[in-house]
Structures are given as structure tokens and as C-alpha cells.
């Protein structure tokens, strides 16, 4: 690619050039036919922005507050696994990029840097994402380590009783390293003769019996607010409120779990309506442009989580690439706000967008 990238999508090509095929496929792939993976991104163009004109937009304020933490924009780094496969500094580089851009970072349970390494690397606000293992004592220990090291919230990923079928990883016989967080606790070097050892690791460790009543167990072992990630329906949103979570992340796991699940942007408003403002709703899935962020906020999201795009930046340029990706999204979002007549994130309302369904009804 000639010259510097001018948008986030161009970082994907740089990442492809920088990474071994096995690792590139791991980061980019989705479940089975990858229908939902494609639709996560392609659903956004079907939503139209309705701009307002002749508004004084000489000063734009993108800042917001997330669970009491002031942040420069409604952007968070999604918890994604194994950053050292993308860059030798791994999650430490990602955390520094987040700190430089003043956005919140979600650190994955499956990170290749330890909780302590990330915590001491910089001053970023960090949330810690967890899976619940069959050995609950290990999950409880990881939660306590996060709390001790100043993490601001726990993100419970709740859509993985089993791992989705990721066929590229199976074909590539994907191998991931022992995870430093679990050294001395449990082996994460699972071997499988059926393909991906990541699938074997999940089958051997993840607790498929996890259910709604276990939210109470999680609340009993930490004082940190708990966000639940993986909600796609109003029914589950209501259950999450009843369970007492501090927030909801609308997510289909980057389309890596159940193929033909709905795209996240298509169900965001359903979840927002079910929650009725009782807790903040966050959005995860397919964000590649500042206009995508604007659309998600107009449909009721408090902030968006960025996953693959950050990994592409990390693979291409390390910490600098992470900063560039976040800054590109912030710049595009600020421009979208200005051209839509919004001076602050509170000015972004439902009237600023029209969905595909609304446009269809108008044509009838």
C-alpha cells in the first residue's frame, strides 16, 4: 500500500502484510459461513444520518463519562485476546495507546501480558474481561488480581458456553501460546488432533453450566461494577437488569460465536428500549468509521467498543498504530458531529438517524 493509511480500513491491509497467515486469519475470521461477520460491518451503511444545519459547531465536545470515568470520547478498546500474536509488546502497547488517547481499555482474560504488566505500563483506565472457568477459584483469583491492580470494572463475557466453529483456525491448526496470567495455576497449552488448540482450550476450561444465578456469585467476590457482554435480545436485557449488572454490552462476539445471529447494530435499539435507561448500554461490533460511532449513539448506545480495528493498528505499527486508529475514529466522529449539528454527545438523538426499516415503511 502506497503512503500512510488515511482510514481504519486501510490498516487491515497493513496488518495482513505484517502477520503470518495463521494469526491474520485468527484475528479476522468469524464463525462458519461468516455471514454475521460480513453483515456486522455492512449493516451500518443501511442507516442514514439526518443532519441539522445552521448550528454553531465552532466548539465540539466529544467527552463523556463511563461508569464514573471521564473519557475523551465515547470509545473503548474492546477486550480481545492474545495481542502478542500481533506485536511483541502485546497488550502493554495497546494500553499505552489507549492512555495516550484518553480512552478506556478492556483487557482480555486471554491476554498475553499479565494483569500486573498492563496495570504498571501506563495510567489508562482499564476494565477487565473474564470468562468463567470450570475451576471457579481461578476466575475468582483473576478478578481479585484485577481489583488489586486498579481496574475499574469487570466485563463478563456471557455468550461462550462453547466456542463457535471458526473454520480458518481449524484449517490452520491454530496454536496459541501458554498465557502468562495462568502460569502456575492451569495449563493453557491444550493440544487437539481436530485442528485449533484454542477450541480445545475452551472445551477444557470454560464452564458451560454458567447461568443467570451465577451473576450473584460474581457480585459476591468483587466490589467492582459488572458489565455483561453478549446481549442480543430484549429478553436477556431484562434478565440482566434483574440480575443487577451495572451495564450491558450489545455484542455477538465479533461474529465469532453463532453465525446467522443478528448484527449488533440491528438489535441495539431493541435492547435500549428494554433497559429503559436503568443502566448504560454499550455497543460492540463492526465499527470502522466515525459515522458508525455516531449512528450507534443515536440509537441509544453510551459508547462503542473497538476490537479488530485496534488489532490491525497494533499489528501494523505497535503502540503508534493503536493511537492512529483511535485518533482516526475520533477525528471522523468529531467531523460527523459537526456536520450533523451536534456540539456534544448529548446532542446526538434518535432523530439524527433513519434505519433501513423506517426507510422501507416510508416507501410503502
Which properties best describe this structure?
TIM Barrel, 12% strand, 41% helix, 364 residues, alpha/beta, two-stranded antiparallel ribbon
How is this fold's topology laid out?
Layout: H1 8-18, H2 21-28, H3 35-42, E1 48-49, E2 64-66, E3 69-71, E4 75-77, H4 90-101, E5 104-107, H5 115-119, E6 126-130, H6 136-148, E7 154-157, H7 167-172, H8 197-205, H9 214-220, E8 226-231, H10 234-243, E9 247-250, H11 264-275, E10 281-284, H12 290-298, E11 303-306, H13 308-317, H14 319-339, E12 353-354, H15 356-363
Parallel strand pairs: 4-5, 4-11, 5-6, 6-7, 7-8, 8-9, 9-10, 10-11
Antiparallel strand pairs: 1-12, 2-3
InterPro entries: Aldolase_TIM, Alpha-hydoxy_acid_DH_FMN, FMN-dep_DH, FMN_HAD, FMN_hydac_DH_AS
Keywords: Flavoprotein, FMN, Oxidoreductase, Peroxisome
Subcellular location: Peroxisome
Would you mind describing this structure in some detail?
One of its GO terms (biological process) is defense response to bacterium. Keywords: Flavoprotein, FMN, Oxidoreductase, Peroxisome. This protein has a single domain, classed as TIM Barrel, CATH 3.20.20. The protein is built from 15 helices and twelve strands. The strands form three sheets. Strands 4-5-6-7-8-9-10-11 form an eight-stranded parallel barrel, surrounded by six helices. α6 links the parallel β6 and β7. The radius of gyration is 20 Å and the shape is globular.
Amino acid at each position: 500500500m502506497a503512503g500512510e493509511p488515511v482510514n481504519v480500513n486501510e490498516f487491515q491491509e497493513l496488518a495482513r502484510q505484517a502477520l503470518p497467515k495463521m494469526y491474520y486469519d485468527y484475528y479476522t475470521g468469524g464463525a462458519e459461513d461468516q455471514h454475521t461477520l460480513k453483515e456486522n460491518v455492512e449493516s451500518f451503511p443501511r442507516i442514514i444520518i439526518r443532519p441539522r444545519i445552521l448550528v454553531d459547531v465552532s466548539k465540539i465536545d466529544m467527552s463523556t463519562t463511563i461508569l464514573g470515568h471521564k473519557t475523551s470520547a465515547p470509545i473503548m478498546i474492546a477486550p480481545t485476546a492474545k495481542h502478542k500474536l500481533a506485536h511483541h509488546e502485546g497488550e502493554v502497547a495497546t494500553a499505552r495507546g489507549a492512555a495516550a488517547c484518553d480512552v478506556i481499555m478492556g483487557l482480555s482474560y486471554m491476554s498475553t501480558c499479565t494483569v500486573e504488566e498492563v496495570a504498571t505500563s501506563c495510567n489508562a483506565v482499564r476494565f477487565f474481561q473474564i470468562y468463567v472457568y470450570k475451576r471457579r477459584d481461578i476466575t475468582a483469583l483473576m478478578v481479585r488480581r484485577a481489583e488489586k491492580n486498579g481496574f475499574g470494572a469487570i466485563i463478563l463475557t456471557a455468550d461462550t458456553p462453547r466456542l463457535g466453529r471458526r473454520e480458518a483456525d481449524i484449517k490452520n491448526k491454530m496454536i496459541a501460546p501458554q498465557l502468562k496470567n495462568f502460569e502456575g495455576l492451569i495449563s493453557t497449552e491444550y493440544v487437539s488432533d481436530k485442528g485449533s488448540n484454542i477450541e480445545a482450550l475452551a472445551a477444557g476450561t470454560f464452564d458451560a453450566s454458567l447461568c443467570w444465578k451465577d451473576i450473584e456469585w460474581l457480585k459476591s467476590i468483587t466490589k467492582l461494577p459488572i458489565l455483561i457482554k453478549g446481549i442480543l435480545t430484549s429478553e436477556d436485557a431484562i434478565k440482566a437488569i434483574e440480575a443487577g449488572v451495572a451495564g450491558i454490552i450489545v455484542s455477538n462476539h465479533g461474529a465469532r460465536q453463532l453465525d446467522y445471529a443478528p448484527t449488533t447494530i440491528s438489535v441495539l435499539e431493541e435492547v435500549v428500549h428494554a433497559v429503559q435507561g436503568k443502566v448504560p448500554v454499550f455497543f460492540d461490533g463492526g465499527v470502522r468509521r466515525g459515522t458508525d460511532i455516531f449512528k450507534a449513539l443515536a440509537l441509544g448506545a453510551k459508547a462503542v467498543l473497538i476490537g479488530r480495528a485496534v488489532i490491525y493498528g497494533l499489528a501494523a505499527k505497535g503502540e503508534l498504530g493503536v493511537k492512529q486508529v483511535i485518533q482516526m475514529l475520533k477525528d471522523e466522529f468529531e467531523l460527523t458531529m459537526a456536520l450533523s449539528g451536534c456540539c456534544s454527545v448529548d446532542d446526538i438523538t434518535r432523530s439524527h438517524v433513519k434505519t433501513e426499516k423506517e426507510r422501507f415503511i416510508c416507501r410503502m
